[in-house]
Amino acid sequence: MSATLARPATAPNSASVLMMLLHLRTFIALFAVIIFFSFAAPNFLSTANLVIMSKHVALNAFLAIGMTFVIITGGIDLSVGSIVGLSGMVAGGLILNGLDLGIGYTVYFNVIEIIAITLLLGVAIGAINGLLITRLNVAPFIATLGVLYVARGLALLSSGGRTFPNLVGNPELGTTGFPILGSGTLLGMPISIWLLIVVGFCAAYLAQRTPLGRQIYAVGGNERAAALSGVRVNRVKMFVYMFSGFCAAIVGLIISSELVAAHPATGETFELNAIAAAVLGGTSMSGGRGRIGGTIVGAFVIGILSDGLVMMGVSSFWQIVIKGLVIIAAVVVDQFQRRMQQRIALQQQAAMGG
């Protein structure tokens, strides 16, 4: 009798330990890549390299935060990389050439106005994604894939495929100061990191502390039940795609500012990094589950992995392969975690029934 009672006591313990490891998998992965590259890559932990890595992580994190909200609702946004490229080109074009009104007048905006216009462009493209999905019932994958091509094509058309160079601006036109966004520092820390802290904090607060955040999770958990309970599903979806476009526009501005140049191909395959960071951070591709904090840690893993592979001299082609494998592994682990949770819930129900 005592042997029979001992078995159920051990099973929950082992299951709970396994669940704890699954919940901590992002931190375990982060610790593992830091330890590995500390030995495998020379000067990996040098101050200069840490600063560069922090900037790269910020770019991944911005996109991944927006992607997290989209995936929580059960969607996907493949257009973020193209929005990055188009945003940089729009900002570069406004700095160099201004806005030609077509009646013999050209309007030049100051840097604050250019940043605002570019951010509004990202929001507008996100709204187009949202309208295609909510009003025309186009599948998120197809809608955002189409917008990916349109945005990339517009970026190429804006300059004929050429780069907008030397975006330092003209003092006489009031267009100077743009490079500060990407290369400036505040209290010894890059401005892009400060921006990430602000956006990350606001996103986490929205997700955990506001009615809109609860509605986002409700839509991803069970869209029909959310609609029946009074949630305006279409408005929630519109918001997440607009926010994702906003985050992508921030990245486009930071990259073009840091390089002091804008190229239409900027942002290619960035959507892979965003999806990988979100999924690695615990966001479920099935929707309904995910945390901004986990996503930011996932962005650290992807950023450190990318930079570490570059420092080791690994081919960029192999880097793409490795990122794809990371996405697959993260989804497999996520599905395993869901099955474990369901199994534990069923065992608890059976124990209570018994």
TrEMBL record:
It is found in: Cell membrane. GO terms for cellular component: plasma membrane. CDD domains: TM_PBP1_transp_AraH_like. Keywords: Cell inner membrane, Cell membrane, Membrane, Transmembrane, Transmembrane helix, Transport. InterPro entries: ABC_transp_permease. It comes from the Bacteria. The chain crosses the membrane at residues 20-45, 57-87, 107-131, 138-158, 178-207, 238-255, 316-333. This is Sugar ABC transporter permease. It comes from Paramesorhizobium deserti. The lineage of its organism: Bacteria, Pseudomonadati, Pseudomonadota, Alphaproteobacteria, Hyphomicrobiales.
